[in-house]
């Protein structure tokens, strides 16, 4: 299991302990220079290969709200070893209730660099209401190193699919109503003429006033109704 090799007291509040821990697998363990954050030049989640506090496991204080339907993560790595980064693996706990889809250049395995960060977009949809947050385990395999692993917490206080169905039905109702009104106008125009359209009488009166004709004159009325005699 290992042993304590040396203990050095540098001050009253500082102690340095040298440990000897056997490794089951030889080789480097931490993929240095690798970062994951919410912006191209940030590292809130992973810094220098180490998962940061708050994302090493699911935390309610670091959870995403129900209204947030997606989150974009930016990954960077040293260019000389960026090809070692492989496609991320997603695991949701519990397995049912939250649908998660991956997209972006990071989901296809594109090598990330400091000059050209890759984007990993997580689109999630709440299918079942749950009082506790869902745990989204993101594992990024690194060839020759230990995989980088972190957790994202997602709240689902209500279902989001119902709102999507409501939006689709509202759109269908709006389009159907518009087509019905247009068909009614076309029918009335062909049967009763253009004067049957709403507002055409007012428009005709305004045009006659602008042209200088007396709409109350008998000759003008007879010419309009019966044509010129």
Automatic annotation (TrEMBL):
<keyword id="KW-0472">Membrane</keyword>
<keyword id="KW-1133">Transmembrane helix</keyword>
<feature type="transmembrane region" description="Helical">
    <location>
        <begin position="163"/>
        <end position="187"/>
    </location>
</feature>
<keyword id="KW-0812">Transmembrane</keyword>
<protein>
    <submittedName>
        <fullName>AT4G36440-like protein</fullName>
    </submittedName>
</protein>
